[in-house]
Amino acid sequence: RKGNVVITGASSGLGLATAKALAETGKWNVIMACRDFLKAEKAAKSAGMPKDNYSIMHLDLASLDSVRQFVSNLKRSGLPLDVLVCNAAVYQPTASEPSYTADGFEMSVGVNHLGHFLLARLLLDELKESDHPSPRLIIVGSITGNTNTLAGNVPPKANLGDMRGLAAGLNDTSGSTMIDGGKFDGAKAYKDSKVCNMLMMQEFHRRYHEETGITFASLYPGCIATTGLFREHIPLFRLLFPPFQKYITKGFVSEEDAGKRLAQVVSDPSLTKSGVYWSWNKNSASFENQLSQEASDAGKARKVWELSEKLVGLA
Ligand code: NDP
User: Fold this and answer.
1) Which of ligand 1's atoms lies nearest the C-alpha of 60?
2) Beta 276-280 vs 286-288: how paired, if at all?
3) Which residues approach ligand 1 with their CB closer than 6 A?
4) Ligand 1 pocket test: which of 6, 7, 8, 14 has the largest number of ligand atoms within 8 Å of its C-beta?
5) ipTM over 0.90
6) CA 168, CA 174: separation in Å to the nearest integer?
7) How far is the CA of 142 from the centre of ligand 1 (A)?
8) What is the DSSP string of 96-123?
9) Which EC class heads this enzyme's classification (predicted)?
């Protein structure tokens, strides 16, 4: 049978390119988990995805009810789940005020981390039951949350602090919408959410890899400077960012090539190692990259896990 892979946020950018790369192999049925059904359908059609190899299901990560509904719809469809890719994200670098999910969490951490955390926890049993040779849970990370890199040192830097803001609920009545309890900063909230993504991948690995054999992995696909992620940035930034990444940092990668990288992490039989954060070198060969101190701190990972369980209603 074909493998079944769920990709969140497959209606644009990296998620769409990955969905296309996998659907074209003929070996995968791609379930595009998207908040905008029509946009996803249009995107799949205009990318020329073979229509027998994908379907679209509604998922809005900014609502825990929607996450639960998605999980129940997927279970009812009877499709076994072989790989889950947590890819969707919002980035609000120019927002002066926070916005909120349906459950009242600051949007970037609410969508990128908390929505995915609940989704991954609720689908873990499905992955455990998969008879696929290599079931996987992939959480897309980023260099920007890694303060051991040049890009990760551009202020404002990621920093979860003592997580007093997360403990208090990241909402407008708790006093702070930031994980560390500080003042709202959209760019930092995104970076913090990516640190949570990378910490959660490792915490899943520690808790479940040995018992289940599931591969838990994260990756930095390169700087895909052309995606919708930068849609809320100022126009001058959007104009100059792609050539800057292409010619100055040379970290630029096209959406198509980044999609092939993520597709590799989903399906390449040689990338089964669990607990790994993959990156690619100049010749596009994958290697196991090092995470920053904070993004590999096991104590912080456990704390994010436990506080997040409370916020999403699992504890
Ligand atoms: P895009 O903005 O192109 O894609 C983000 C996707 O997430 C879109 O499909 C969007 O849906 C979806 N999404 C946003 N909010 C929600 C929600 N509430 N519920 C469901 N889906 C939602 O950005 P990228 O492709 O660049 O980003 C994909 C991943 O890659 C992210 O995890 C990002 O952190 C990571 N990444 C990106 C890099 C880059 O340089 N671009 C570098 C490193 C990592 P819609 O189409 O409806 O808006």
Assistant:
1) 19
2) antiparallel
3) 8-9, 11-15, 34-36, 39, 59-62, 87-90, 111, 140, 142, 194, 220-221, 223-225, 227-229
4) 14
5) yes
6) 6
7) 12
8) SS--B-TTS-BHHHIIIIIIHHHHHHHH
9) oxidoreductase
Distance from Cα 211 to the centre of ligand 1, integer Å: 31
* pLDDT tens-place string over residues 159-207: 999 999 999 999 978 778 999 999 999 999 999 999 999 999 999 999 9
CA distances from 130 to 135, 137, 214 (A): 7, 12, 9
Q: Measuring CA to CA, which residue among 117, 125, 38 is closest to residue 81?
A: 125
Given a contact cutoff of 8 angstroms between Cβ atoms, the answer to whether 161 and 180 are in contact is yes
Distance CA 163, CA 297 (A): 13
C-alpha to C-alpha distance for 189 and 207, rounded to whole angstroms = 26
Residue 225 CA, ligand 1 centroid: distance in Å:
12
> Based on the number of CB atoms within 10 Å of its own CB, is 46 exposed (0-12), middle (13-18) or buried (19 or more)?
exposed
Ligand 1 centroid distance, CA of 59 (Å): 13
Please say whether the beta carbons of 291 and 198 come within 8 A. Answer: yes
Which of 216-220, 258-262, 289-293 comes out lowest in average pLDDT?
Answer: 289-293
Which residues, in sequence order, are CB contacts of 207 under 8 Å at separation 6+? none
Q: In whole angstroms, what is the distance from residue 266 CA to residue 2 CA?
A: 13
Distance between CA 121 and CA 241 in Å, rounded?
A: 36
Cα(101)–Cα(239) distance, integer angstroms: 30
Structure tokens at 110: 């609410």
Say what the pLDDT of residue 185 is. Answer: 96
Choose the catalytic residue: 54, 91, 100, 190. 190
